[in-house]
Amino acid sequence: MSDTGTTDVELTSRVTLAEIAERAQVSLSTISKVLNGRSDVSASTRGRVETLLADHGYRRRKSGSAPNPLIELVFHELEAAWSMEIIRGVEDVARANGMSVVLTESGSRHAPAADWIDGVLQRRPAGVVLVFSDIPEQYREVLRARSIPFVIIDPAGDPTPDVPSVGSANWSGGLMATRHLIELGHTRIAAITGPDDMMCSHARIDGFRSAMTAAGLTIDPDWIRFGDFHTAGGRLHGQQLLDRPVRPTAIFAGSDLQALGVLEAMRQLGLHAPDDVSIVGYDDIPLATWVSPRLTTVHQPLRRMAEEATRLVLRIRDGRVDSVSRLDLATNLVVRESTAPPKPDRSDE
User: Fold this and answer.
1) Gap between the Cα atoms of 171 and 254, Å rounded
2) Which pLDDT belongs to residue 347?
C-alpha cells in the first residue's frame, strides 16, 4: 500500500514514467505525488500530469493493493563469478521469511536505468536490494512515496548518507593484502585496482599506499593502475607491468577476476606464480580455489552482505529502523599458494 493509502498504477504503455515526467516538465517525485493523490501538487500541474498519464494508457488499480511477497534484487550486470554469492544470500533470508526473489538487470554500475522505476512500481515488491554505487535522489523519492523499502549492497561505492547500505572494509582489505606481501619480503609491489570513478577502487589503493608508506617503501606511480575489475583489465595491465626489464615481484589486484587476468598475462610471458611474481586478489570468489596456484585473496563477505541487506530491508518494511543504517563488514586475508617470498636474486635490485 502506498503512503497515502490511495491507488496503484498499471502500466499499459511503452512510455515510461520518466518520459511522462520529462514531457510534463516535472520531477519523478511529482509524478509519484500525483499517482498517490498527494495534496502538495498544484491544480495545473496535476491536470497536466493526469492528462499525459491518461493519453498514454496508464490505468489505476483499486486502492489497498498489498505489496507482493517478493524481494527484488537489482544488478547492473549478472557477473556469475561473484553475483551468485549475493543471490544466495538474498534468497536465504527471503526463503526464511516465506518470500521469493526476482532478479533484475538494469543500468550501469552507478545506478539503475531510467525505465527501472516503472517496472518496480508494476511489480510492487515488499522491498528492493540494489547492487550499485548509489541510487538517484528522484528514484529514492518515488520508492519512499510508495512505501517500498530499499537497501544498497555496496561492494563498489559509497552511497549518500540518507541511503541504507551494507558494505565492507575496503581500505583495510588493501592494507592487509599489501602488508602480507611486504612481510614475505617483497619491496617492488604493484597494484591494479578498479575503475577510477568508484570509491572502493580508491579505498583499496589507499590501503595499499598506507602499507607501503608505513614500511618505508617507494611507490612507483606507474605501478598503480586503474582497471575494470574484470579479467581483461587484469591481463592488459599485467602485461604492461611485467613485460619490462625491471618488473614488480608482487602484484595486488583489486579483484579476483583481475588477479586471474594477471595470471594469464604471466603465462603468456613465460612467468609463474609465485616463483616469479606473487599475486593477491580481492573478493574470494569460489573460482579463487579452482585455479592453479590457488589464489591468495582478501575475503569480502559478499553472501553475508546480501543477507544483512535483506534483513535490513525487512526491518525497514516493518518499521523497526529508527534512522538510516550503514553497516560495514570486516574483510580478512586468505593465504593460499599464489604468494611466496621473492627469489633472492630478484629482491631489491
Assistant:
1) 11
2) 42
| Structural domains of the chain ordered from first start | 9-60 (1.10.260.40), 68-168+302-331 (3.40.50.2300), 171-300 (3.40.50.2300)
Q: For residue range 65-124, what is the model confidence (pLDDT) as tens digits? A: 556 789 999 988 776 677 888 999 999 999 999 999 999 888 777 778 888 888 888 888
**Alpha carbons 311 and 129: distance in angstroms, whole number:** 10
Distance CA 116, CA 106 (A): 7
**Average pLDDT value for residue range 18-29:** 82
CB atoms within 10 A of CB 200: 27
pTM above 0.85, yes or no: no
The residue type found at 34 is V
- Residues 307, 221: Cα–Cα separation, whole Å: 38
- Give the cell for residue 51: 492528462
Look up residue 113 and give its amino acid.
Answer: A
Q: What is the mean pLDDT of residues 130-157?
A: 80
Mean pLDDT of the chain: 85
Peptide bond into 161 cis (omega under 30): no
Q: What are phi and psi of 320, to 5 degrees?
A: -105, 20
Coil/strand/helix, residue 167: strand
Q: Phi then psi for 312, rounded to 5 degrees?
A: -65, -40
Q: Residue 10: which H helix or E strand, with range?
A: strand 9-10
